[in-house]
Amino acid sequence: MNEQNERKKLELMINRAADGELTEQEISTLNQQLQGYPDLLENYHDILALPDLKSAYDRINIHPSDYQTKIDRLISRMEEDGLKNFAEASIFWFKRYAFAASVAALALVSGFYLITDNTGDNEMAVEQLLYPDDGGDAETYVLYLNEYFD
């Protein structure tokens, strides 16, 4: 159990070293302690060899004021709609947008129904889709019988 606690402490120290939170003295102490744990020492060197990603995040300029203005707009909109908390607001807005989406879907389906021709060939088209003509002899034979009895 004591060895597991020691490993956990070393892993935490490795994380702190990778984040740049340790002093030079603490890093040298960590290196000495890691000599007894070759797998942790290898992980430590691998972690330190990773590239620094801070430069990728420097290009993102998000200021706290941006968040505050969005929050203020959300709160003012909730007050306009007479909503007390975010749970009420989310249910209210979900109902509104779900209704709008269902009306749009109904209009789309109705539009497709109205642009189809109502000549009655729809049943034949469905039959041809479900039972395609494979050009077999049985169908030709039935065709000959129909012509013979007509």
Task: Please provide a written account of the structure.
With about 150 residues, the protein is an all-alpha fold. It contains eight helices and no strands. The chain has helices at about 1-20, 25-35, 40-50, 55-60, 65-80, 85-115, 120-130, 135-150. Helix 1 packs across helix 2 (about 25-35) and helix 1 packs parallel to helix 3. The protein is elongated and about 105 Å long. The protein starts with a helix and ends with a helix. The relative contact order is 0.04. The model has no long low-confidence stretch (mean pLDDT about 80).
Features:
0% strand; single chain; 8 helices; 150 residues; mainly alpha
Pairing-aware structural class of the strands and helices? mainly alpha
For the largest beta-sheet, the strand count, sense and barrel status come to: none
The 3D shape can be described as elongated
Q: Segments where pLDDT lies below 50 for 5+ residues? A: none
Based on CA atoms alone, the radius of gyration comes out at 36 Å
- Specify the number of helices: 8
Secondary-structure element order, as H and E? HHHHHHHH
Distance between the termini: 95 Å
Could you give the count of β-strands? Answer: 0
Oligomer state of the chains in this structure: single chain
Helicity range of the residues? over 70%
Rounded mean pLDDT is 78
Strand proportion: under 5%
Give a summary of the structure in a few sentences.
The protein has helices at 2-18, 24-34, 38-48, 54-58, 64-80, 86-115, 122-130, 137-149. It has 150 residues and is mainly alpha-helical. α1 packs across α2 (24-34) and α1 packs parallel to α3.
